[in-house]
Amino acid sequence: MGYWGVVINNLKNADIILLVLDARIPEETRNSEIEKRAEILGTRIVLIFNKADLVNKKAIKELKEKHKDAFFTNSKKRQTLLPLKKYLNKISENRLKALRVAILGYPNVGKSSILNSLTEAKEKISSVSGTTKKTKWIRVGNLRYMDTPGVIPKKDSKTKVALTSSKDIYKTEDPEKIAFRLISKLRKTNALQENYRIKFTKKDSEYDIFLKIGEKKKLLIKGGEIDEDKTARIIVSDWQRGKIRV
Predict the structure, then answer these.
(1) pTM exceeds 0.90, yes or no
(2) CATH 3.40.50.300, domain 3-147, yes or no
């Protein structure tokens, strides 16, 4: 059974779904296929905006106003999971059967880290996508948690897959295209200036900014030109590994 087959099978057995999103790019990491299937099955979905520590306070405030029932977490700090843990414990009280909680989302959004914080389990965690290979159920009191492999909607482009950290950039073709897309998104914030200590104006193109980053990091090839392939992979890798705040 493929990844999607596993997920669909377990959706049918879940009482509640924790849909984990990357708070830096919440819309890009919402999985419409999972949400549609959950709606058909009548399964409750709770949105978890993970990596909230990488997002500026203004953006987090706007997200909280828009998603009043969601939870905002930093899976590396267990105390940020306490409100979610209390919520799940409360709705699982007095049930004859354990509440089955499915933890779903794109690869590398932090599902296993959240599972570890909620259960004190020790699942393998990596900043490289695809670490979780199969479905796991963990029982804690009157709760049964399910951790699944990350799933990607079939319609997603290769560029979006890389931006959502769903594929290791060092195994991706055409990294420059992905880096330019990321720069286009981040140039509206101070993320690039603060992370790479560069300056640019509105007149600078994505390519101009890209070259400034390569120059700043001294990623040069013979002849003093910028190593564009290496620059692109480093920029996207920094994003995937949570080194760039927005």
Answers:
(1) no
(2) yes
